[in-house]
Amino acid sequence: MSTEAPMPHLPYPELFQMLGRTLRPMDAVDPHAIDKAEQALDLAAPQALRDFYLLAGNARDFTAVYDQFLLPADWSLQEDKLVFVEENQDVVRYGVDCGPDAGDDPPVWITTTGHATEWHRVCDSCSEFIATMLAWQCSFGKALPHGASGLAGPGTEAALKAGWHFVGTVNEMRAYVQPGHAACVVEWSDGLRVFVGALSDDALWALEDALDLSLESED
Predict the structure, then answer these.
(1) Burial of 39 (0-12, 13-18, 19+ CB in 10 A)
(2) Residue 165: helix, strand or coil by DSSP?
(3) What is the pLDDT along the chain (219 residues), one digit of tens a residue?
(4) Which domains does the chain have, with CATH numbers?
(5) Cα–Cα distance between 194 and 183 in angstroms, integer?
(6) How does DSSP assign 25-93, residue by residue?
(7) Cβ-based neighbour number of residue 87 at 10 Å
(8) In 130-143, which positions are buried (b, 16+ CB within 10 angstroms) versus exposed (e)?
């Protein structure tokens, strides 16, 4: 598995624009909603999480199309972690370190639901986690309208490194974007599989040659 470092963090308006979605004022969460959630939980959300929600926390066509980025009113505190994302079937949840010692952009952790929970670190920073999960929402969760997947070919890794912006890794899943496209590379049950999303059907199937894939439609 590749260990390449993420490229410099794309500002969220640029990342959304690359994925074909212009952020609008209505996509921003009211800062008072975040303040109210912090007061209710008696915690301080890390700055990286606030920054995202203040720009795109209400962009539900991206943040809630598959896995669920919770609105501040639905945040919870579990074992000193601020839980802000629930997996599609609520089998696992993601939480971020919070509080005065966490720093502005702390790591993100995963745990299963239920009573006997253990936390495992899945990403080194909150901003990297968010960008990576947005790519996952686009390539697997249908935030982009056309999607497919295929096993990685001999030229896939080189093609992604050469022509795509690497946004980060979550739990060994690597995410990439380029204008109009998202791709996530993950070890699947049948091998190293690449999930891709695109703005158009033609652009989607053009990725077969561009990324050395034999795509299987997810539609």
Answers:
(1) exposed
(2) strand
(3) 456 766 667 899 999 999 999 999 999 999 999 999 999 999 999 999 999 999 999 999 999 999 999 999 999 999 899 999 999 888 899 999 997 788 999 999 999 887 767 899 999 999 999 999 999 999 998 999 999 999 999 999 999 999 899 999 999 999 999 999 999 999 999 999 999 999 999 999 999 999 999 998 765
(4) 12-129 (3.40.1580.10), 139-214 (3.30.310)
(5) 7
(6) GGGSPPHHHHHHHHHHHT----HHHHHHHHHHTT-HHHHSSSSEE--GGG-EEETTEEEEEE-TTSSEE
(7) 15
(8) bbbbbbbbbbbbbb
The structure tokens listed for 159 are 């093609």
**What is the value of pTM for the model shown?**
0.94
Cα(166)–Cα(175) distance, rounded to whole angstroms? 6
Distance CA 20, CA 94 (A): 26
Pair 49, 34: CB distance under 8 Å? no
